[in-house]
Every structure is written in C-alpha cells, then in structure tokens.
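DM from R.C. (forwarded with permission)

"hey, sorry to bug you on a friday — could you get me a structure for this? deadline for the figure draft is monday and I only need the backbone to look sensible"
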Amino acid sequence: MTAADRFVLDLFAGAGGWGHPLKVFGIREVGLEWDEWACRTRTAAGQLTIRTDVALYPTWPLAGRVWGVLGSPPCQAWSMAGKRLGLVDQPLVHQAVADLAAGRDTRAELLAACQDARSLLAAEPMRYLHALNSVGEPEWIAMEEVPDVLPLWRQYAAILRGWGFSVWSGILNAADYGVPQTRRRAILLASRIRTAEPPPPTHAPVAEPESLFGPGRERWVSMAEALGWGATDRPTPTVCAGGGPGGGPEPFPSGARKTLADARERGRWRHPAVSRASGRAPRVGPAGKASGGGAWSWSLRSNNQANATVRTVDEPAGTLFFGHRANECVWVAEPTATNPGLKGPPGTAPEAIRITAAEAGALQSFPANYPWQGNKGQQFSQIGNAVPPRLAAHLLAPHVGITLTRDNFTLAA
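My reply, with the result:
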C-alpha cells in the first residue's frame, strides 16, 4: 500500500470542522459519525463519511491505512452548557483510557457506572490508537474538546509518549487563529516524526506593530468583519421565520410577545432604508452605524441567563453553543446618542432577533455557502458541536505539510 492510499481517520467527525480544511488541503479523510444530519451535511460538502457508532466500529479494517487520527468526542457531558456529569464520571473515563491502552476492554462495566452515557466516549480514541499502534500507526494525532477535558488529554499524552510520540496538550483560544469567536478548547497534538507544539497565533486582542522578527499579530476578527456588516448595503441582522429546533414554528426569544413584523407595524423599529418586501433592518457596520442614517449598537447575547456572554459586533463572539437554547442566542440592540429617521419612544430599541444558522456558521469560520442539512435545530446543533475550521486548519497544517499564514490562505474554497 502506497502513501497515497492512506487517509486521515476522523472520529466523531460531526459536520466537517476538521474535514473541511482537509478537503481544502487536498488530503483524504474518512469520517466516522452517528448523527444522520451531520452525515448528510458532510456528504453534501464532499467529505467521505461512514455513518456508524464510533464505540462499536471495528478497528481491524483500518490497520495499515491510517496516516493521522482526529478525535473530537461529543462534549455535552462536559460542557458548561449542560449538567457536566462528565466531571462526576471522570475517574471512570480515566480508568477506561488506562485499560484500553493496555488492551483491556472494560467499557461495558464502566459504562454501567457512569452518570452520563456520553462521558465514556472521550475514552474511545484510545481504543483506536491502541489497535493502530500495533502496526506503527498513526504518524500524527490531533484531538479537541472543552477545557475540562484537559486532564484526560494529559493522560493520553503520558501514554502516547510511552509509545514514542512527541506530545503537546493545553488550552488554545480560537480567536488567536482568526476565528471570530473566543472559543477556548483543550487540544492534544502528537507526532512520531516532529516535535509536537501549538501553532503560532496569528491574531491578538490588540493589533501588534511590525518588529525585527516580522509582522505583528493582527487584531482579533470581529463578528462584524466575519459577517460583512458595513461592507455593503445588504441588510442584517437577518430576520428568520419558521422552523424551530424541532422543525415547527420558530419561537422568538424569551420576553418577546409579538413577531418582529408586528413590532415594525407598531412603529417600534422603522427606518427609511428598511424594505417592506424584505422585512429586514439596515446593515450595521462594525462601529454600530446603520446605512442610510441612524444608528443602533448591536450585540450578540449567548442565552437568556443572567450571566450570559454579551459581545458587541466589533468584538469576536463568545463561545457558541446550541441545543435546547438554540432560540436564545440573539442579536440585541441599543440606540446610540443620535438616531435620525428611527421611530419609537426615546430609549427603545428593536426586538431581539435570533441568530441564523448561516450567521452562526460564519462565526465558527465555516464558509458562507457551507451546505448545512436538516431543520434549523439540527443545523444549530451541528454548528455548535463543530471544531472551528480555521482553528483546525492551523492545527493540521504542520502535520500535512502545509505552510499556513494569515495572508495566503482562505477556507472559502
């Protein structure tokens, strides 16, 4: 078998956060994924997918064919957005990893003791790695999860070093790599042939000047830049209607009692540039200025909780997560000091508008035309669970022989 016959194995492949940059790079990838709609999205995006349960798929057909292994186990058991029973189950997951690394399959016994059945999925990559290691594979590994999984990645790292890998594990912020979102993730990188280390950041909270060592890092990419707000007269935020998480009518966020159209007819949100045909607001630029006169200062609120992350459009988004809270990630607005042409009582602002799947995908650094499949709830779930492709591209580049800079690469292809 030649090197051209080998591929990158993507465990828990999702909708293609790892797969999209690999496709752009021209690298063969095979994704294992259980969710039907994520599989459909990957297929529509041209990514080879096997719909299967990663915990049940046999490892023997893969031996001798795997160049790299990717692993992003489902994060719901560990995420701040859930009950975090993964933390309760953590000793059991550590035990599963140790047993699998030694060739002992105790998953059934340990799973019976878990508070959340999804917790043990974080140990599944070790089953594959142990089987592949027996034939000297893979050459490299990259894994990603929520920050609370870092102690588990450190356990993986100790085992992999014993097998001859160079390993790095730590927390990276996606915003440092050009993603318009301050998404912090626990990362593990391992290689048999090079020193494993995190990629150099290309962006920073504040732009850095050029120095003797070369150009400084650029400023973090804002939501406004990523969404093109202010670049044209196309109106945003987009008003979406119909199709909630279950596919039925889409509710408005908590506290909204009328549709946005009703709000406009009451005169609470009207602007000369608003088209009655499109029913949309003027595009808002990074400085919060609406085209055609007037101004609102827009922000993105992650949910309706008291401690929700709220970021203005000239900043990156906070970490995006969806699911049962899909309808609660909304654009909210405040009027600026002057708002000529905007009607409504002083101090009032437009109703909150739910973020669209296309906007959420862009804030995860997916291309605007990425072919999301399923109803809105299914699309939001895929987006929230994905690795940001631009972060993935930086993590993958050294292992697949790609020189990646902020100036000569785009994931839009």
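R.C.: lifesaver. The first strand starts at residue 7 and ends at 11.
me: no worries. Residues 232-294, 339-344 have pLDDT under 50 and may be disordered.
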